[in-house]
Amino acid sequence: MPVFGRTARRALATRQADHAEVVARYAAVPLPVPQPHSRGAQFTGEYLWKHHHPELINWQRQHDYLLDKLPRTLQREAEPRAFERYYDAFMALYGDRPWR
Q: How far apart are CA 74 and CA 100, in angstroms?
C-alpha cells in the first residue's frame, strides 16, 4: 500500500474527528430557556413564537463562530438541531394551542 494513501486516509480521519468535535461542542452550548410570557394564556402560538424566536436568533449569532471552520454542509446540519431543541423547549412550555 502506498504511503500517500495511508497519509491521506489518516488526514481525512483526523479532519472528520475535528469536525465532529466542533459539532459536539456547538451542540453542548446551552440554549436560552424560553420563559413563560406573563400573559401567555391570552396569545396564540404564532404570537408567542414571534416573541421567543429572537432569543434563538441572538443565541445563534453569538455562537455561529463555533461553526466557522466547518464545511457549509456540516454547518447546515448543526444549525437546525439547535432550532429543534429550542422549538421543543418552546412547545413544552406552551403545549398545543391554536397557532393563529
A: 34
